[in-house]
Specification:
The complex is a heterodimer of chains A (153) and B (229). With 153 residues, chain A is mainly α. Chain A has helices at 6-27, 31-51, 75-106, 111-126, 145-152. Chain A is elongated and about 80 Å long. Chain A has 2 domains: 1-55 and 72-108, Helix Hairpins, CATH 1.10.287.3510; 110-153, no CATH class. Chain B has 229 residues and is mostly helical. Chain B has one domain (49-224). Chain B is built from 8 helices and no strands. Classes of the chains: A mainly alpha (153), B mainly alpha (229). At the A-B interface, helix 1 and helix 3 of A face helix 1, helix 2, helix 3, helix 4 and helix 6 of B.
């Protein structure tokens, strides 16, 4: 395969955007960066979809002043991407509103801290000690609601 | 360690996608639905923009479902953010330049948005793009003056519901006529004229107003979110 083929460059750009997006989602701990990763992934996916029927030299599938171009691009992926972009905006706004709620509830957007606080909250609610690992058995704390219920029955 | 495994994962994913691409010839897809549509769309729908023909005529029901996704996102966004407390502090107004710019932009954005929606069947553009511009028209003043209530959420819901109902009713009218759901109706008119392509411009107007009001409501909710410490 010719590495300098223009199609190859375009495809690499689209796949590269997707990989950067996925990398951002997997590696970063900050919620806003994860949302940016989603946005990049979406851009890459849209570009890939458009490129899937790309023809060099094809014009847009629109007839202007009755001139029918010799070769027109495929309108189907364009229609798909058209709606996907708008939906992407809606999804981003939804993700950001969830991030606002996380910030107001936990005071941080760092996922490590949020996860820790979430774990703490679940343990308090269930009346057990914070598990040292996900495989550790649950230890009921003395004086908790669960322990009193146990004694009463 | 986590970064290393993530990098390894990405490397593997990239190689997998590259391997898939080695065996695909994407420019010459086996399913040439697009070229077939290009050949008959002008005759069948009367719209000069074939993307519009695909969005509204050939896969109109998909567009309806996509509008539903957008509606769900907007609704859940509103639910998640909730109402602000009455005494919650607000951001101060923006500076003179942004305020004046917002005043000047508001009518301009409305006109451009409506133009793009109404010419969706003739030129690049249409309900989705124009709808976003309409939403931005209502969002820019909110950025300039965080305190004002430019749009009533109930009015937004009403407009949105009416636009969605229009889309579905036009689809049902086609069924009353004995055709399939969302088949374009009415006279196709003169090819390339503003009033042509039957019901497609009306459908796109409904889409534009629905997208615009949904996004405007969602952005207003985001702007209304209480200022964080």
């Amino acid at each position: 395969m010719d590495i300098l083929d223009s199609n190859m460059i375009l495809y690499s750009a689209a796949v590269g955007l997707m990989l950067i997006g996925i990398g951002g989602i997997v590696i970063s701990n900050h919620l806003i960066r994860i949302i940016f990763g989603i946005a990049l992934l979406e851009a890459g996916a849209n570009l890939l979809l458009l490129l899937s029927t790309y023809h060099e030299g094809a014009s847009a599938p629109i007839i202007v002043d009755g001139n029918v171009p010799a070769m027109m691009a495929d309108p189907v992926p364009q229609a798909l991407v058209l709606t996907a972009i708008v939906i992407g905006v809606g999804i981003l706004a939804l993700a950001l509103s969830l991030a606002i709620r996380v910030q107001s509830a936990y005071g941080t957007l760092d996922m490590r801290e949020v996860r820790l606080k979430l774990e703490q909250e679940i343990s308090d609610e269930a009346g057990i000690e914070m598990p040292s690992s996900s495989h550790a058995p649950a230890v009921i704390t003395a004086g908790s609601a669960a322990a009193q219920q146990e004694g009463g029955s | 360690m986590r970064r290393f495994t993530a990098a390894l994962f990405l490397l593997g994913l990239g190689m997998m996608i590259a391997a898939i691409y080695q065996h695909m010839d994407f420019s010459n897809t086996a399913v040439n639905a697009g070229q077939a549509i290009n050949a008959v769309a002008a005759e069948e729908t009367g719209a000069a923009n074939f993307v519009t023909s695909v969005v509204l005529a050939y896969r109109g029901i998909d567009t309806l479902l996509e509008l539903t996704i957008l509606f769900t996102a907007a609704m859940i966004g509103g639910m998640v953010l909730g109402r602000r407390r009455v005494d919650a502090p607000r951001d101060p107004d923006a500076g003179f330049i942004l305020r004046t710019g917002a005043d000047l932009l508001f009518p301009l954005l409305l006109v451009v948005g409506m133009y793009i929606i109404l010419h969706g069947h003739l030129t690049p553009g249409g309900g989705f793009q124009g709808g976003v511009i309409l939403a931005v028209a209502f969002f820019v003043p909110l950025l300039a003056r965080p305190g004002i209530t430019l749009i009533d959420q109930r009015v937004v819901s009403l407009v949105e519901g009416l636009a969605g109902a229009t889309f579905i009713i036009i689809g049902l009218l086609a069924m009353l006529d004995g055709k399939e759901f969302l088949t374009p109706l009415l006279d196709k008119g003169e090819f390339g004229a503003l009033i042509s392509a039957g019901t497609l411009p009306i459908l796109y107007l409904a889409v534009g107003i629905k997208v615009g009001s949904e996004l405007a409501g969602l952005l207003a909710h985001l702007a209304e979110a209480e200022a964080l410490d």
